[in-house]
Design a protein that fits this description.
By secondary structure, this protein is an alpha+beta fold. The chain is built from 7 helices and 14 strands. InterPro entries: cNMP-bd_dom, cNMP-bd_dom_sf, Env_Response_Regulators, HTH_CRP, RmlC-like_jellyroll, WH-like_DNA-bd_sf, WH_DNA-bd_sf.
Length: about 220
């Protein structure tokens, strides 16, 4: 499932972004962030949801030891801060820009409710989309808690293939054209970049994968 701008037959940005509507257009602005700028912190008031127009945002929290735990890295067209729609008043995670230029479309919870009220079919699809996203995050947290590093990487690649993969007609390989850096992937599976690099090269030597900066090829089925 590729969530960039679309889920099912709905253009998420065209429907949700307030600047598309005369009622909201005049007062609507985009917010711009530099690398390492925070969109919100843990314990901040949750009064908005956000769409990424450009750039990349990481979502995470700090555990009891003060270590950062990354639960998602989101790119163009993806939605975050969505727990506000479900009634959360306080953030239980942070959101931080991780690119030099990130453009965010903020949507107040009330505006979101108004837009969803006016289109029941779309409202159902929003909740379906949120359910999919929560299941994905729950799976990622279970991987971090209960699986060893190599298993986390292999299962992450399976998920990545489901989101960004397509078949290569000539070779039969699964080709994954993804938006993540090695640093992003290392953060998402809870390891260091050097360790990730070692594991990726081991999988390459085993003819499981081949990879370049923005592409990973699954050469045989991951057990």
């Amino acid at each position: 499932m590729n969530s960039h701008w679309f889920f099912e037959d709905v253009n998420l940005f065209n429907i949700l972004c307030p600047h598309k509507f005369k009622t909201y257009k005049k007062a609507h602005v985009f917010n711009y962030y530099s690398k390492k700028d925070y969109i919100y912190f843990e314990d901040d008031s949750a009064s908005k949801v956000y769409l990424i127009e450009k750039g990349k945002v990481k979502i995470g929290y700090y555990n009891e030891s003060g270590d950062e735990v990354i639960i998602a890295i989101l790119t163009k067209g993806e939605l975050f801060g969505e727990k506000a729609i479900l009634g959360d008043n306080i953030r239980d995670e942070f959101a931080q820009s991780i690119e030099k230029e990130t453009s965010i479309c903020p949507i107040s919870v009330q505006t979101m409710f108004d837009l969803m009220r006016d289109n029941q079919t779309f409202s159902f699809k929003v909740y379906k989309f949120l359910g999919f996203k929560f299941k994905k995050m729950e799976r990622r947290l279970k991987l971090l808690l209960f699986k060893d590093t190599k298993t986390r990487l292999l299962e992450f690649l399976e998920d990545l293939c489901g989101e960004y993969g397509h078949d290569c007609e000539k070779t039969g390989d699964k080709v994954i054209e993804h938006p993540y850096t090695q640093k992003d992937i290392a953060s998402l599976i809870g390891t260091s970049r050097p360790t990730l690099n070692i594991m990726m090269n081991e999988l390459k030597e085993e003819n499981v994968i081949d990879f370049s900066r923005k592409e990973i090829r699954i050469l045989k089925k991951i057990a």
